[in-house]
Amino acid sequence: MSKLITVFGATGNQGGSVIRTILNDQKLCKEFRVRGVTRDVNKPTAKALAEQGVEIVQGDLLNPQDVATAVKGADTVFLVTNFWEYFSSDPEIQQGKIVADACKEAGVKHLIFSSLIDASKTTNGRLVNITHFDGKAEVERYIRSLGIPATFVMLGVFMSELFTLIQKGEDGSFTLALPVSTKAPTPLIDASKDTGNFVRAALVNPPKEGSNTIHASAGYYTPEQIGVDFEAATGKQLAVVSVPGEVFKSFLGASMPPHLVLEVYENLLLLEEEGYYAGADLSPSLNALSEKPVTLKEFFTQHKEKW
């Protein structure tokens, strides 16, 4: 009999990618039956998954009873929490701990969590406002403390963020202005496509005990390389410039509250010194994949119409 995998955030970027990957993989679709958890079972994306044979259940990650029901009978659980829904790590941490407790109680054999590094600790207190990193790191520590076999999948910067970061001027020119060096290594991922690609590697090689970490990125790209790939894919030039921090924060301040301005600003500063992954080599994670991830040039080519 096939094993059950519960996927939280089934209709979102990451959870949806995980489900699509399992359904389209000849081996995994036989090994696992999928239960997708979403707050709104009536949304079109949820109904579409149900039509593909996914068991869709309603669930609020802040409701322990909902979560217990969602993981009941599951061999494996994929968990993604969403800082950007609340703009606060407190609910995110609470969600993560509720799910971890439920997994421990239900005897889940493998918990896959979309995690990130502890930026405050990694930078020795230099950058203390990257709370969407630190909150996930706290959940990761809690999962480890429970002794649940786990894989921590750390996604890089979403390539889709470049839709916002690359600005088109009134004269039709394009600019990428960042508060870091144009040589700062930036790990990038097409999250809607490749979250599932990296999670498949976790499903194929689950930890027998303890935990594994996967650095889920297609590669490290400098802003300079982003400019090169943009031009190669679109035929349009991209001016890549390093701007003072206060100038960059003023750009963000027009559309964000102050604490989120600091969140995004410090997140970018992390790239330049300690590093998004604290200097981790991507090779082991990339070598574990059964298919190559989407490159940045391919991503730009696929989304030419955006520019």
UniProtKB/TrEMBL annotation:
Keywords: NADP. Residues 1-300 form the NmrA-like domain. SUPFAM superfamilies: NAD(P)-binding Rossmann-fold domains (SSF51735). It comes from the Eukaryota. GO terms for cellular component: nucleus. CDD domains: NmrA_like_SDR_a. Belongs to the NmrA-type oxidoreductase family. This is NmrA-like domain-containing protein. It comes from Penicillium chermesinum.
